[in-house]
Amino acid sequence: MTVGKPVCETLIRAYRRSSPTRRLGVPLTTHDVVLEPFAPSTRFRLAGMAVHLYTASGTVLAFLMVIAAIDGDAIRALWISLVALIVDGTDGMLARRMRVKETIPSFDGARLDDIVDYITYVFAPVILLWTGGYLPGGAVGGTIAALPLLASSYQFCRVDAKTEDHFFLGFPSYWNVVAFYVVVVGLSPTTTGIIFVVCSALVFVPIKYIYPSRTRAFRKANLAFTAGWLATYALMLLDMPDPNRGVLWLSLGYLLYYVASSVYLTLNGNPPGPVAPVETRVSAATTGLGD
Fold first, then answer.
1. Which of 176, 207, 267, 289 keeps 20 to 30 A from 28, CA to CA?
2. Each residue of 236-264: pLDDT tens digit?
3. 13 part of a folded domain
4. How does DSSP classify residue 214?
């Protein structure tokens, strides 16, 4: 591995601050940076705990969503769901930056993330649509409401639900997104029921869906379009009960891009994305967190 001198010096300084060799006064080389295990400081451990708490806050947001649904305030529930989306979209980046796998090795952050995602992406949105009368009533409606809960329970337990090349395998349980469009567009219970059945079935169809923050193919476009979609989400909620049609079509255009790109990459393979900066690759070699 060839590493530029400025990068080497930066890495050496960083590792000296957290390394036992710093106390011994032993000169640290680039070779040592790669081989020496990371020794987290108290500051890193506290930062790791803060990141896990940040992720866990999603359970509180889900609780608030359910309360809003019971109160009959679907718009408030969708605003809370937007906050949950932002938390979920940023906690992984923070976890990797704070190297939580090493700072708190006894705590399984991935399991916490799955628990939070199931509650905020699946359970709370289904409660919102059921209590708001957006699903068919009676035994048929109850059965339809159960489909996402069961299908996503299966998906969240699959070891390959997130592939090694950073895709979601099968419909990625975006029931919060489904709930958003059902409420904003005002879809009928029958239409909503059909969407529930189709998307539940798609959980088992091996299409590789883009993981916006991690899939390397089209990464810059994915991040830009996802940020734009979040903006349209907020703009439409601000305009409720009569959202701007132009903003709505822009929002739906993102969904079309997302599905079309996912199907294209599934059929044609995942082309290599841009090569990570050398600093990232050295960090990956030393921490195992390059993915």
1. 289
2. 999 999 999 999 999 999 999 999 999 99
3. no
4. T
